[in-house]
C-alpha cells in the first residue's frame, strides 16, 4: 500500500501538470493587431508539437508501468487520469488536423504578403480554400477559429497595401 500511495501521488502530480497544460492551451491568445495568417499556422504547429510531446510521454513505458500497477490495485486516481488522457488525445488530434488544413492555405500566404495589389487575383482561390476548411474540418469550423483566420488574412492584406503605398 505504501508503494501504491507513492505511485498515486506521482499520478496526481502528472494530472495537475497536464491540467495546467490544457488550461493554458485554451486561454485566449494575445497577438499583435497586425499579425498575418501565417501566425495561425505557426500557433497550431506549436500546439501540435506540445501535445504530441505530451502524448509521447504519456505512452512511455515508465508511465504505462505505473498506470498498469494502479489498475491492478484498482486505484481511484485512474478515473481522472483516463479523462485527462482522453482530453490530451483530443487536443493533439485537433492541432494535427488544424495544421493539415491550414497548410492548404500556406501557398496563398506568400502572394498575400507580396507588396503588390496583384494579390487580388489570389483572393477567390483563397476564399474557396477557407470555405473548404470550414465545410470539412471537424475542429476548425467554429466561428472563433474562422473569425481569427479572416482577421489575420485581412491584416495581411492591409499590411501589403500599406507597404505598396509607402513604397510607391
- Count of discrete domains: 1
Q: Give the helices and strands as they follow along the chain.
A: HHHHHHH
Structural shape: elongated
N-end to C-end Cα span: 77 Å
Instruction: Work out the oligomeric state of the chains in this entry.
Output: single chain
Q: What is the alpha-carbon Rg in Å?
A: 21 Å
% residues in beta strands? under 5%
Helix content: over 70%
Taking all residues together, what is the mean pLDDT? 90
As residue ranges, the low-confidence spans are none
How many beta-strand runs? Answer: 0
Largest sheet: none
Name the structural class.
mainly alpha
Number of helices: 7
Task: Describe this structure as you would to a colleague.
GO terms for molecular function: dynein intermediate chain binding; dynein light intermediate chain binding. Residues 5-166 form the Dynein heavy chain tail domain. This is DYH5 protein. By secondary structure, the protein is an all-alpha fold. Helices cover 79% and strands 0% of the residues. It has one domain. The chain has helices spanning 2-26, 38-58, 61-72, 77-103, 106-113, 123-136, 143-167. It is elongated, with a radius of gyration of 21 Å. The chain starts with a helix and ends with a helix.
Amino acid at each position: 500500500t505504501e508503494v501504491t500511495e507513492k505511485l498515486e501521488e506521482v499520478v496526481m502530480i502528472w494530472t495537475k501538470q497536464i491540467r495546467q497544460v490544457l488550461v493554458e492551451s485554451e486561454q485566449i491568445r494575445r497577438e499583435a493587431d497586425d499579425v498575418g495568417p501565417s501566425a495561425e499556422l505557426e500557433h497550431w504547429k506549436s500546439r501540435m508539437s506540445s501535445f504530441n510531446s505530451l502524448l509521447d510521454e504519456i505512452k512511455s513505458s515508465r508511465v504505462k508501468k505505473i498506470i498498469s500497477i494502479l489498475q491492478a490495485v484498482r486505484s481511484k486516481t485512474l478515473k481522472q487520469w483516463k479523462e485527462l488522457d482522453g482530453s490530451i488525445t483530443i487536443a493533439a488530434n485537433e492541432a494535427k488536423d488544424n495544421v493539415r488544413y491550414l497548410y492548404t492555405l500556406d501557398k496563398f500566404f506568400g502572394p498575400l504578403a507580396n507588396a503588390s495589389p496583384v494579390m487580388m487575383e489570389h483572393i477567390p482561390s483563397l476564399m474557396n480554400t477557407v470555405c473548404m476548411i470550414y465545410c470539412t474540418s471537424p475542429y476548425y469550423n467554429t466561428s472563433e477559429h474562422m473569425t481569427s483566420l479572416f482577421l489575420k488574412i485581412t491584416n495581411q492584406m492591409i499590411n501589403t497595401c500599406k507597404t505598396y503605398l509607402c513604397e510607391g
